[in-house]
């Protein structure tokens, strides 16, 4: 695939302070921790969607990264269509994930439901076909230039605490991430659909036997997963260049987070997203040039010592 | 082979809890017991698919408990499975050939054409079990009964001294069952093979077993000649308790 | 009674047999004289096809025959290529050392990665391989002093014999035939049949005395070695390397080739590689949206032709012999 590696840079948080990493004082560590945690939050939002789809549908969805990319590009379009005003970001947060969710509904009904009984390799290849198609569609619609999305004025700039400056947007993510986690918890534990999802993940035959139409459960989960990917895309957008190929760099991380956390276990995804995000940002602090090695290193080590994931896998 | 006080539990459930069994060379021994008595688990412990929590398993005086399955196999213990467990995309011939090659220590041979290797022994086994005519078929396309027989043929490819058969006739028609029993009987008599098997059908058990061990709730509750076992009160209670 | 000859399950009649050596020799001779009759651009294209076909066949060795969910095979392709380039620009060793070292380095690193991977099953295996592969990629991508970073290494010079395009063509052609021949022998050796047995049924394999991990590791390393050979040939052709060679999407591309040609056949991956190389070139002339075409092809393949082109043809020829759609159940969940 052309030029994929050149895109990796874009997914890194430009607000990291890798430049002055040599100066390792407490404030640097503090702000780097915040950056890492905020990145963890986005990673969690994205990979929780992937984890849900894996747990309930049993489909390793490589197109999840593309959905994230679509979310970011749609956010750009929404914000631009509204004249780039301060409200644009909030409209993007509201609308872009819904657009992605709509696309997911079409994909699930049109394609995915035909391959639930197939083995993983075929499922991966089908979703990889979607990666290719979405990637060219994005190129067709938005072109190859970098796009950017401004966060609203209230979230730009930094504030100073104990002599250290923290980016406001990172703090915002630190609030949003736990909110999403709590909402997911409420959904999975307090709603009927959520309970059915959990039941389906652990024992599909049982759910079928109870007369629940798993067809629509699957569709709903895939739509929810896509919505989360889109949401992750919107939240990531102000911190990176929105560009073709951002899907390629995120999807492997998302998969590793899900697998390391325990397949299909949303809380495992939260734990490993924290490890990944913080691990990478501390990597920036100690060894800036090879910081992006850390997530893969962590994933490999964790997979080797705990092959079935940190938390209990639903498989 | 001796099994002494072997135990295995899964998440606190004691699947096998103090099983004892002695099998002499050349004997045909049956393990019977109600569903869930731990027969298959006992087999898995003997063949190394599971590691026992406690107890000793010795074969020809050698401790084998806890060894990996492929090592135990090389010591001369082979088994067939209750559920069909063959190589569905290989031909019938290759199914057995793979097993013969593994026993001969040739599985790692990288460059010799496999078509010319171990053909006679493989065909001999297929003839013995009556699958010679189907040798070139893809094994996944065989009938259920033939796949069960192929199960045994694969185990024979290891040229075992002790052969474990886990419900060799499960799911078979009466004719197939009769043929399979005749085959097992023939193997024991003509080759002096030691056979340990589990079976639901008690008629089958009493017709060919020289010795019977009864398991109930993971324990061996009786071991002896068929007549002795038939007369054993505890055995009757275990079975009646199950069916009543 | 003489045993009847046995058809190996997976390659059946469509590929080489002793009696079929003649067509192979004929094909070799035709390809040998080919450069005299076609424009040099096509010579280049053919060379690229041999290289890619070798890469795809090596992947299929552990994927189609061993049932390993190898999701990042391109790593070994890249390692082979980078070994040549780095030997050329960072050491004073003669270039041929690099050419020989390439596959060895790929196999050695393959051994280390494989040693960990074969302890896991199914999707976990694939994910660990992805993690390790991307680990190698990031190191290559970032280590400017040693690997040239994201720029890669360009402008290598080759020894006189293989400096010209025709020279490179002949080298690639011969190496391609030799490597496929060796892999064919391996697939039809006791090792190969045993490997297919471990793919079909790991539990049973172990109970008939096969050390599954050792077999899987061996197939993994052999596949890595031949991918390394392909990587070396790639450098000879292109005289440059870049991190894209070992990015994960490259691995996905190779997987598609295997699927397209047919993973249950020996020559399928080569056919798939040729098809992808030719299509990407032809379609690339007319549109910049080649990926969408590839994506649609892939969709159609997965949904309607999972056994691949050669697999489908064999099924048609072999129908009535109890053959089944092969690609459905070779990788355990």
Q: Care to give the gist of this entry?
A:
The complex is a heterotrimer of chains A (about 325), B (about 240) and C (about 325). Chain A is mostly helical and about 325 residues long. Chain A has helices spanning about 25-55, 65-80, 90-110, 120-140, 170-190, 190-200, 205-210, 215-235, 245-260, 265-285, 295-305, and strands at about 160, 165.
Secondary structure class of chain B reads alpha/beta
Helix- and strand-based class of chain A? mainly alpha
Largest beta-sheet characterization of chain A: 2 strands, antiparallel
Tally of DSSP β-strands of chain A: 2
Give the low-pLDDT segments of chain B: none
Outline of chain A, from the CA principal axes? globular
Written description of the protein model:
- The complex is a heterotrimer of chains A (315), B (244) and C (333).
- Chain A has helices at residues 26-57, 64-81, 88-110, 120-142, 168-190, 192-202, 204-209, 214-236, 246-261, 266-286, 293-305, and strands at 158-161, 164-167.
- Chain A has a domain at 38-246.
- In chain A, a hairpin with a 2-residue loop joins strand 1 and strand 2.
- Chain A is 66% helix and 3% strand.
- In chain A, helix 1 runs parallel beside helix 5 (168-190), helix 2 crosses helix 9 and helix 10 (266-286) packs across helix 11.
- Residues 1-22 of chain A have low confidence and may be disordered.
- Chain A has a two-stranded antiparallel ribbon.
- Chain B is of the alpha/beta class and 244 residues long.
- Chain B folds into two domains: 1-76 and 160-244, 3-Layer(aba) Sandwich (Rossmann fold), CATH 3.40.50; 85-159, no CATH class.
- Helix content of chain B is 38%, strand content 24%.
- In chain B, strand 4 and strand 5 form a beta hairpin.
- In chain B, 48% of the residues are buried.
- Chain C has 333 residues and is an all-alpha fold.
- Chain C has helices at 21-33, 40-65, 74-90, 95-117, 122-142, 144-147, 165-187, 190-200, 202-207, 212-238, 248-261, 268-286, 290-304, 308-318.
- Chain C has a domain at 37-247.
- Chain C is globular.
- Classes of the chains: A mainly alpha (315), B alpha/beta (244), C mainly alpha (333).
- Chains A and C meet through helix 4, helix 9 and helix 11 of A and helix 5, helix 11 and helix 13 of C.
Task: Set out the fold topology.
The complex is a heterotrimer of chains A (315), B (244) and C (333).
Chain A lengths: L25 H32 L6 H18 L6 H23 L9 H23 L15 E4 L2 E4 H23 L1 H11 L1 H6 L4 H23 L9 H16 L4 H21 L6 H13 L10
Helix pairs in contact in A: 1-5, 1-8, 1-9, 1-10, 2-3, 2-4, 2-8, 2-9, 3-8, 5-6, 6-8, 9-10, 9-11, 10-11
Chain B lengths: L1 E9 L2 E10 L5 E5 L6 H8 L7 E6 L2 E2 L5 H6 L2 E4 L11 H12 L15 H11 L14 H14 L4 E5 L7 H18 L2 E5 L3 H7 L2 E6 L2 E6 L1 H6 L1 H11 L1
Parallel strand pairs in B: 3-8, 3-9, 6-7, 7-8
Antiparallel strand pairs in B: 1-2, 1-4, 4-5, 9-10
Chain C lengths: L20 H13 L6 H26 L8 H17 L4 H23 L4 H21 L1 H4 L17 H23 L2 H11 L1 H6 L4 H27 L9 H14 L6 H19 L3 H15 L3 H11 L15
